[in-house]
Write a structure and sequence with these properties.
- By secondary structure, the protein is α+β, with helices and mostly antiparallel strands.
- The strands form two sheets. It has a four-stranded antiparallel beta sheet with strand order 3-4-5-6, with helices on one face.
- The model has no long low-confidence stretch (mean pLDDT about 90).
Length: about 190
């Protein structure tokens, strides 16, 4: 667990991670201020997206590329002129970013895209949005897949087993309910 780091070294590594996030936040603020100073802010779409997060000791894991919530979520911020700021609770995937960018820019894709534009969510015009995200990662020769929806996650590591989590009552995914709810597992599979 935690690569045998001492408690002090673990805390220092987490502090460094959060310091990096603060630095990025500061730089984004500088960019926004520069856009305002140049008179471009009210005419510019700003998109902030990052890679997936680190486990930082959750589940006794450290890095990313796992299927737990801490690893699969990514920051995603779209600032669109003339659209009021709001937090969107629906599940979106990174593959939805490009189609959304195209739509906001008034462009069409030359090829069929897997993702779906979420501009309707941004503008509060899309009541028919998907309610799931699929995540896949590789650990050695093993490919794991996860399904995330509002309230549930199903993680399938093939022959290594299946995990089911009730995200409303167990947001940190600590109690695997797969054995207690085989019908829910089958439904989500």
């Amino acid at each position: 667990a935690n690569f045998n780091l001492s408690e002090e070294d673990t805390r220092e590594a987490i502090r460094a991670y959060y310091a990096c996030i603060s630095l990025v936040d500061e730089q984004v603020g500088r960019l926004v201020e520069a856009l305002k100073e140049k008179g471009l802010y009210n005419n510019t779409i700003i998109i902030f997206v990052s890679d997936h997060g680190y486990q930082l000791g959750a589940h006794e894991l450290w890095f990313k590329n796992y299927l737990f919530h801490e690893s699969v979520i990514a920051p995603l911020i779209f600032r669109v002129p003339q659209v009021s700021p709001k937090r969107i609770g629906e599940v979106v995937e990174l593959l939805d970013v490009y189609p959304s960018m195209l739509e906001l820019a008034g462009l069409e894709s030359a090829t069929k895209l897997e993702g779906k534009s979420f501009v309707g969510l941004i503008k509060a015009e899309d009541p028919q949005w998907k309610d799931f995200a699929i995540v896949e990662c590789k650990r050695g020769d093993l490919i794991g897949k996860a399904l995330y929806l509002q309230g549930w996650s199903l993680i399938d590591w093939s022959e290594r087993g299946i995990e089911l989590y009730d995200l409303k009552n167990d947001p940190y995914q600590l109690s695997n309910l797969a054995q207690q709810h085989p019908q829910k597992v089958q439904e989500l599979q």
